[in-house]
Specification:
Elements lengths: L19 E7 L6 H10 L11 E10 L3 E10 L9 H5 L4 E7 L6 H13 L8 E6 L9 H7 L11 E5 L8 H25 L1
Parallel strand pairs: 1-3, 1-4, 4-5, 5-6
Antiparallel strand pairs: 2-3
The structure holds guanosine-3'-monophosphate-5'-diphosphate (G3D) and magnesium ion.
């Protein structure tokens, strides 16, 4: 699910392997951000403690089409008092992963407010957004359509490419597919930016 900007671009094969992408992992506290990070890094479940500041890891990820891509993830604490820091971590970021707890219907409105706030920051205009609908393994998790509506993803506008990915971070389900989409969106945006620069 997304706004149609994430189709596989044909120029992927031209991208060098050593490229590293800066990705900020954001979301409310307890959504599963740190679990996502360590699942991607160690390919196993790591018991987490609430993040006081941030975790930063460079991780090589195998994506579809035999691509191996290095991501530099910044997992920033999601407690209310830490959210003002998000702005610093998204400065010059290639992409944003916003993790939501699919069971936490009560805080979906709060997640929506924070998500829109960060997406609309002037530095983040056009930065691709992967929304991870996490904890889909739990019985009362909301479905994708409902999450899309509650987060008002369509209101992000055509300038922000986004993709909504169902996932279960403790097992790892959905994470690689989501990163695949994010990577495609990042490359597509870079191509557009390059073309715009050439025209000037
Ligand atoms: P945060 O970094 O966003 O604050 P954490 O969140 O990664 O610390 O995770 C918060 C809690 O959610 C953890 O449980 C973690 O195990 C759990 N969690 C993360 N992802 C999933 C998932 O996909 N499914 C389920 N069922 N639980 C998940 P604790 O018990 O340690 O608070
Ligand atoms: Mg954390």
């Amino acid at each position: 699910m997304g706004n149609g900007l994430s189709e596989q671009p044909s120029f992927i094969s031209n991208v060098p392997f050593f490229q590293s992408f800066h990705i900020a992992i954001l979301g409310l506290d307890s959504a599963g951000k740190t679990t996502v990070l360590y699942r991607l890094q160690f390919n196993e479940f790591v018991n987490t403690v609430p993040t006081k500041g941030f975790n930063s890891e460079k991780v090589k990820v195998s994506l579809g089409g035999h691509r191996t891509v290095t991501f530099h993830f910044w997992d920033v604490g999601g407690q209310e008092k830490l959210r003002p820091l998000w702005k610093s971590y998204t400065r010059c970021t290639d992409g944003i992963i916003f993790v939501v707890d699919s069971v936490d219907a009560e805080r979906m409105e709060e997640a929506k407010t924070e998500l829109h706030k960060i997406a609309k920051t002037s530095e983040n205009q056009g930065v691709p957004l992967l929304v991870v609908a996490n904890k889909q393994d739990l019985r009362h998790s909301l479905g994708l359509d409902e999450i899309e509506k509650l987060l008002a993803l369509k209101e992000l506008g055509p300038g922000t490419p986004w993709h909504l990915q169902p996932a279960c971070a403790i097992i790892g389900d959905g994470l690689r597919d989501g990163l695949d989409k994010l990577h495609d969106m990042i490359l597509k945006r870079r191509k557009v930016l390059r073309q715009q620069r050439k025209k000037r």
